Amino acid sequence: MKKLTSLMVTVLAITVAAIGQNTGYTSKKVADGVYSFGGGPWAYYSMFVVTNEGVIIADPINADLASAMMKEVRKITDKPIKYVIYSHNHWDHISGGKIFKDAGATVISHIEAKENILPNPNVVIPDQTWSGDRFDIRLGGKTVELYYYGANHGSGMTVFLLPEEKVLFTADLVVPKRVAFMFMPDFSPQNWIRSLKEIEKLEFETALFGHDIPTGTRKEVVLQREYLEDLTMAVGKAMQSGDMMLQSVSLPKYKDWAHYDDWLGMNAARIMLEMMMGY
Ligand SMILES: [Zn+2]
Q: How close is the Cα of 159 to the center of ligand 1, in Å?
């Protein structure tokens, strides 16, 4: 037990040391001017776009990651940081924007995201909002298309598409090779499936994600939707057979995905609650 405790302290110390030191981050160029950036202690990822008139930053995540991203951007270009675009209203993706705001960036989000950001001194409130289901940002010959599909996760959830480069960026709606996060906080499961079907209609070849595995293709988007559909089917079957504790729910196809053993039950319970409550 003593050994375990000292190991835990060591792990905690390493984790704390990693925060605030800009360590453990990686940058990957996926298309002309388009980069995935992130990592760090909790494996969060974002995207930035470099044009000849300035830089567009997606989620700033947190202050440490944002300052590491700023350093990385400055290795590539000295053009101004023009925009920071939030994917949704959750703190864990949109804290740390101050460094870009102080450098002159305009912070943008969907109106629904801005209106549902809970007070937090680390989150820069958006300077500009957009509404409806589509908004385009153009800078230095590049276009970033922003899509809103209504309720799915959080508020004002925005999917980014660079049509010329065929690159998609989505935070939280797709996490490759991992079952859904715990009890699916702030997710609307059937709207999530509907939104993924809409995303699959977009033209992209490279997909960038916000958690765990930063880059992939449309295959990961399809698999995320299939997982949720298979889970919904399995939960429906269990309920029909009177198994309201959902003990019979298992999805062997996904057994190698991260957190299959500890989160599948929570995922299933969330699906059942939506079926019972319409929420
Ligand atoms: Zn979120």
A: 13
